[in-house]
Task: inverse folding
């Protein structure tokens, strides 16, 4: 698949990542020209100004549990924007959602989106913790709250993305809204399957291996 790299958010969110790890990560991101580079907030300053303009700097809010207060999430988003982030991945308040406090969840997403201004906001709903009807409801809330993407998973819960979840989310949000699949996507074949199912962004820490495999599959390497 041509330009697969431009559908990948290359990610390093492990808690023990060091400055040296981040520098190697930056080299890989620049070499393979991924769509976005995703790091924990403390490393954003290392990326801003050190990547080509077409590679977006992305970080996380309320990660990985979504249980921060709304005020904390809003401040975190404002802080990331002030540091130069182009995109923000936030975790929905899953507990509030599970008790059907949809007003709280929707308002929080709207407030974080306002804090993001014109930056892209992706909302992680942690599909592995939701029943089918809950996934539909969560996707609708994200769609109606001004965000830009609904995202399957943090990769830090009981499982990551599943094909059926991506198909379901795409059916809810329609053809023009963003759907990001993440968590456990490590191979070229997996990435293609998720894209075919409706994802227009793939979150992974295995982007290098995926792009290399894609090049081999197309006979370019």
Result:
């Amino acid at each position: 698949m041509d330009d697969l790299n431009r559908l990948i958010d290359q990610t390093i969110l492990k808690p023990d990542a060091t400055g040296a790890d981040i520098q190697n990560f930056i080299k890989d991101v620049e070499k393979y020209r991924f769509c976005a580079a995703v790091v924990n907030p403390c490393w954003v300053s290392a990326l801003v100004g050190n990547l080509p303009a077409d590679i977006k700097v992305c970080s996380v809010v309320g990660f990985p549990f979504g249980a921060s207060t709304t005020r904390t999430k809003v401040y975190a988003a404002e802080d990331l924007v002030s540091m130069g982030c182009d995109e923000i991945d936030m975790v929905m308040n899953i507990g509030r959602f599970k008790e059907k406090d949809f007003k709280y969840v929707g308002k929080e997403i709207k407030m974080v989106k306002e804090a993001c201004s014109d930056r892209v906001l992706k909302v992680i709903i942690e599909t592995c913790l939701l029943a089918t009807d809950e996934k539909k409801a969560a996707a609708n809330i994200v769609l109606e709250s001004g965000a830009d993407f609904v995202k399957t998973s943090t990769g830090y819960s009981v499982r990551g993305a599943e094909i059926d979840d991506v198909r379901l989310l795409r059916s809810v949000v329609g053809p023009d809204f963003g759907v990001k699949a993440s968590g456990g996507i490590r191979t070229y074949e997996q990435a293609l399957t998720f894209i075919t199912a409706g994802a227009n962004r793939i979150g992974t820490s295995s982007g290098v291996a995926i792009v290399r495999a894609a090049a081999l599959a197309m006979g370019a390497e």
Observations:
- The mean pLDDT is 97.
- The chain has one domain: 4-217.
- The longest strand covers residues 56-61.
